[in-house]
């Protein structure tokens, strides 16, 4: 047991020692620092932002700061410009050790394990020398007016010198230019004066342009006003001419309308006359027909009066009343129809006056026609009523008429004071002449109406005798007294 422990302890110690040696050779570099391992290798190994191993006792690890180094570069004394004006320049510059392998190698040769202050001091001296060189090549006005150009020239001039040391220029900004004789200030005053002069000239020119523009604007406004007034006058003149032309056209149209109105009015009047004439003809035809119907009704009335006179009179009165009522109804309908037509024609006349006149004429003609038809129908009703009265009424009417006719025929004799007649034949002749007048009346009725009164009376008497003969045969006893009375 003791032997085992004695063997293990040296091994552990040996392993621990090896681990310690290896641990002491472990190197880890941050991004802003470069470790350069040298010793066994011909070309040093560089670690930036990564880890590596170095062999203890045989290799060493040196470092370089890669962080940004700000430098305030000022000329230590006045530097004459290209135009022989002494000035001092103040600039802010940022430099750093280059990451480029070639430049990093140069930086390792120059700044290995040195602090950034030392690196900045070296870079400041190089930059100051280059800045003094550029100042001598440029004029004061050029440098003051274009600082970017001055900074660019200094950067380009100093870059090769710094690259040879392994450094890069990150930025170069000129802070200020100063001189002991106030040249820059006077240059600024001169510029101010020039600027003021230019501003005054520009202001004068602007005011001149404004006045010129105002005058031009007033001229244009005046021209526009004159042009506008001229255009308005021309428009008004054209308007008056147009009004005159429209008035002429309106008068012509009105004249045409008046002529059309008169033509339509005359046409409507003619149509009314034609309708009126047709209505008159129809009325005359109805009157003729009525006369014919009157004869027929008279014949039937006489026949009905003998058989049943009282009933016939009652029926005739009722028929006449119905006929009168029907006539009034027809007249009322005709008037209503005429009014409706007149109203329609009036309404339509508002839309078209000429057409309204024609419509009104048609309506009046229709009204006249309707009235004539109503009168004709009334007359037909009357004729129909008289027809129901039969022949007896006709005979009665004729019997009542004949005495009156004889009386009227003999009336002229009443105006004669005395008549001297000779012979018996003269009295007979006078009586015969009077009866001839009565016969002429009967013949006239027959000629105008076709009714033979004498034949009608003869037939009626014959029919009456046949009726009485039949009645006597049925009764067995004749009644001659009735014949005498008749």
Key terms:
about 475 residues; alpha+beta; four-stranded antiparallel beta sheet; three-stranded antiparallel beta sheet; 10 helices; 9 strands; rod-shaped; disordered C terminus
Explain this structure.
The chain is of the alpha+beta class. 75% of the residues lie in helices and 11% in strands. The chain contains ten helices and nine strands. The protein has helices spanning 2-24, 101-111, 116-135, 140-145, 147-163, 183-351, 353-414, 424-449, 453-475, 480-485; strands at 26-28, 33-38, 45-48, 51-53, 60-65, 69-74, 79-80, 86-97, 167-179. Strands 6, 7, 8 and 9 form a four-stranded antiparallel sheet that branches. Strands 3-2-5 form a three-stranded antiparallel sheet, with helices on one face. A two-stranded antiparallel sheet has the order 1-4. A hairpin with a 6-residue loop joins strand 2 and strand 3 (45-48). It is rod-shaped and about 205 Å long. The N and C termini lie far apart (201 Å).
Summary, kept brief:
With 486 residues, the protein is α+β, with helices and mostly antiparallel strands. It has ten helices and nine strands.
Give a short account of the largest sheet.
4 strands, antiparallel
Q: What spatial form do the alpha-carbon principal axes imply?
A: rod-shaped
C-alpha Rg (nearest Å) = 78 Å
Low-confidence stretches: 476-486
Provide the residue-averaged pLDDT. 76
**What is the H-and-E element order?**
HEEEEEEEEHHHHEHHHHH
Note the beta-strand portion.
5-15%
Tell me the distance between the termini.
201 Å
The total strand number stands at 9
Number of helices: 10
The proportion of residues forming helix, as a percent range, comes to over 70%
Computed structural class: alpha+beta
């Amino acid at each position: 047991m003791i032997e085992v422990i004695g063997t293990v302890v040296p091994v552990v110690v040996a392993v621990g020692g090896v681990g310690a040696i290896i641990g002491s050779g472990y190197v880890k570099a941050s991004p802003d620092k470069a470790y350069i391992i040298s010793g066994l290798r011909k070309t040093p190994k560089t670690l930036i932002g990564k880890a590596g191993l170095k062999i203890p006792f045989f290799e060493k690890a040196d470092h370089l700061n890669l962080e940004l180094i700000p430098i305030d570069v000022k000329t230590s004394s006045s530097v004459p410009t290209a135009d022989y004006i002494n000035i001092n320049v103040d600039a802010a510059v940022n430099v750093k050790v280059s990451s480029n392998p070639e430049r990093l190698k140069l930086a390792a040769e120059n700044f290995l394990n040195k602090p950034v202050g030392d690196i900045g001091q070296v870079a400041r001296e190089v930059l100051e020398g280059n800045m003094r060189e550029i100042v001598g090549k440029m004029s004061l006005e050029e440098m003051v007016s274009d600082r970017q150009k001055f900074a660019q020239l200094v950067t380009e001039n100093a870059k090769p010198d710094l690259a040879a040391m392994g450094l890069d220029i990150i930025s170069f900004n000129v802070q200020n230019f100063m001189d002991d004789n106030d040249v820059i200030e006077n240059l600024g005053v001169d510029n101010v004066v020039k600027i003021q002069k230019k501003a005054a000239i520009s202001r004068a020119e602007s005011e001149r342009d404004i006045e010129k523009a105002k005058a031009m604007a007033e001229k244009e406004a005046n021209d526009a006003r004159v042009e506008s007034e001229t255009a308005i006058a021309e428009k008004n003149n054209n308007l008056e001419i147009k009004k005159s032309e429209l008035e002429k056209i309106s008068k012509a149209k009105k004249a045409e309308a008046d002529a059309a109105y008169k033509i339509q009015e005359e046409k409507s009047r003619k149509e009314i006359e034609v309708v009126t004439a047709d209505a008159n003809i129809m009325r005359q035809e109805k009157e003729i027909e009525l006369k014919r119907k009157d004869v027929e009704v008279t014949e039937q009335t006489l026949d009905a009066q003998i058989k049943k006179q009282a009933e016939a009179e009652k029926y005739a009165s009722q028929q006449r009343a119905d006929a009168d009522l029907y006539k009034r109804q027809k007249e009322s309908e005709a008037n209503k129809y005429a009014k409706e037509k007149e109203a329609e024609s009036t309404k339509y006349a508002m839309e078209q006056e000429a057409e309204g006149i024609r419509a009104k004429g048609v309506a009046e003609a229709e009204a006249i026609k309707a009235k004539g038809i109503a009168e004709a129908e009334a007359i037909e009703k009357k004729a129909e009523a008289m027809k129901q009265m039969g022949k007896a009424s006709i005979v009665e009417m004729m019997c009542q008429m004949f005495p009156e006719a004889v009386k009227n025929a003999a009336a002229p004799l009443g105006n004669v004071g005395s008549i001297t007649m000779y012979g018996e034949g003269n009295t007979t002749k006078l009586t015969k002449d009077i009866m001839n007048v009565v016969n002429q009346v009967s013949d006239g009725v027959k000629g105008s109406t076709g009714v033979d009164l004498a034949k009608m009376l003869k037939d009626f008497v014959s029919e009456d005798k046949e009726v009485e003969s039949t009645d006597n045969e049925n009764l067995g006893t004749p009644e001659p007294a009735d014949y005498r009375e008749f």
